[in-house]
Amino acid sequence: MTPSKARKWYDIRWYSDEETKEDRKLIVRLDLLIVPYAVLSYWVKYLDQANLNNAYVAGLKEDLGFYGNELVQLQTFYIVGAVVGQLPFMFLFTYVPMYYLIPGMDVAWGIFTLLQFRTTSFAELAAYRFLVGLFEAAFFPAMHYVFGSWYRGDEIARRGGIFYIGLSLGTLTAGLIQSAASATLEGVHGLAGWRWMYIICAVITIPVGLLGYLVLPGTPDQPNRKVLRQQDVELAIARLHRSGHVSHERFQWRTVRKVLLTWHFWTILLMDILFWNAGIHSTTGTFLLWIKSLGRYSSSRVNQLGTIAPALGIFYTLAVCFASDLLIGPAWAITVASVWNAIGLVILVIWDVPDPALWFAFSTIYASVALSSVLHGWVNTQLRSSPAARSFTLVLINTVSQSTTIWTPLLTFKTVEAPRFPKGFAFCLATAVLLIVVVHGLNSYLKRAE
Question: Main subcellular localization, coarse class (predicted)?
Fold first, then answer.
């Protein structure tokens, strides 16, 4: 790829200078096919993942008699399912068309989201959470594999950033749905408001999954012919080849040996582990549990107020991802997000501060996940010469990193320690600082290698 001429920081463009008219038409077509569906699907993924925390503070805890660490244990069952479910996808990405694979997972997790409305015990709910996690497992690396199959390294982060606002939108919407369900559907047809939330979430999820089969373009080697012409595919392959991307390669077991014998891979893995653990306070319900502990608000109002943090997360995600592609690059974008996360965590570690300071601290927590698309887009770019290595690495680092969050919340975010979580906030702060160190170590190595 020919470097673009240096521009002023305010001269922001969607395309690079060397794109032809045909290239730009293709990019627009891909953007319209991939990005809106990615946002929708990630939205319903986090709608279905986050609804447990909202249901817990809206009556599930009392209805099912949960007064110990059941919440964090149910969160762990989800993660176990997500880790186990990812393992086959290390090689399936290069064999099964993505426009079948991703929508199929969407529909399956929608079905098990629906079944949660009928739960009557911890064991039943734990089984459903495991199965939701199992089918949601590969969605995130799968979408990044699709992004890396069509876009260059300097194009991925901002598309990934728009995609990633689905996380914040899902968490935010889950709170609003639960608030509305608690306020208007409590007792309708004999069902509690939190049970209605699971029904509503499933009704949203399943059609989104079916839509993916019709709009997702797949990958250049396995394109969806319903939405792309052969000349579109050939043009996409040509523009990627100009910047060193390889578009077709099947996974083989020798790929595993090749990847695992490079220290570069282990640095990426460490970076991803730190990323996942620096943000576990955003998924363990800390903000909602603190608001509920204040004793000032109804269940409906607690869920409404809990949307503040994910709403700010939308801004954080877009700012960090666009800055990465267009201004400061991935290493510094990750640094900015991690520093903002760390500032909030310092306040939460101190804890004995006025309430406005705690409101501010909790408002920073989604900075911890805002950098995700930058980090994984960076990995995509580093492995652009091998689709098989890219597939294996994206899934493996996600699997191993997420597997660490099976046990770290159990140790550091015990529900009985809410809302203070003295070990949890300190742990997240330490990993956020270490993440900055590792990122700049990797960035220095890559600059020397170039």
Answer: membrane
HEC assignment per residue over the chain: CCCCCCCCCCCCCCCCCCCCHHHHHHHHHHHHHHHHHHHHHHHHHHHHHHHHHHHHHHHHHHHHCCCCCHHHHHHHHHHHHHHHHHCCHHHHCCCCCHHHHHHHHHHHHHHHHHHHHHCCCHHHHHHHHHHHHHHHCCHHHHHHHHHHHHCCHHHHHHHHHHHHHHHHHHHHHHHHHHHHHHHHCCCHHHCCHHHHHHHHHHHHHHHHHHHHHHHCCEECCEECCCCCCHHHHHHHHHHHHCCCCCCCCCCCHHHHHHHHCCHHHHHHHHHHHHHHHHCHHHCCCHHHHHHHHCCCCCHHHHHHHCCHHHHHHHHHHHHHHHHHHHHHHHHHHHHHHHHHHHHHHHHHHHCCCCHHHHHHHHHCCCHHHHCHHHHHHHHHHHCCCCHHHHHHHHHHHHHHHHHHHHHHHHHHCCHHHCCCCHHHHHHHHHHHHHHHHHHHHHHHHHHHHC
pTM for the model stands at 0.70
Q: Which residues pair with 223 in a beta bridge?
A: 218
pLDDT per residue, tens digit, the chain (450 aa), is: 334 444 454 555 666 667 788 888 888 899 999 988 988 888 888 778 778 888 888 888 888 988 888 888 998 898 889 888 887 776 777 788 999 999 999 999 999 999 999 999 999 999 999 999 999 887 878 887 888 788 876 777 778 777 777 767 776 777 778 788 778 888 898 889 889 989 998 999 999 999 999 999 998 889 999 999 999 999 988 888 776 665 555 656 676 777 777 777 888 899 999 999 999 998 888 998 999 899 898 878 888 888 888 889 888 988 888 888 778 889 999 999 999 999 999 999 999 999 999 999 999 998 998 888 788 878 877 776 666 677 777 778 888 888 898 889 989 999 889 899 999 999 999 999 999 999 999 888 878 776
Q: Give dist(CA 355, CA 361) in Å, integer.
A: 10
d(C-alpha 345, C-alpha 365), whole Å: 8
Compute CA 65 distance to the chain's CA centroid, rounded to the nearest angstrom. 31
Cβ-in-10-Å burial (0-12, 13-18, 19+) of 23 comes to: middle
Q: Where are the domains of the chain?
A: 21-449
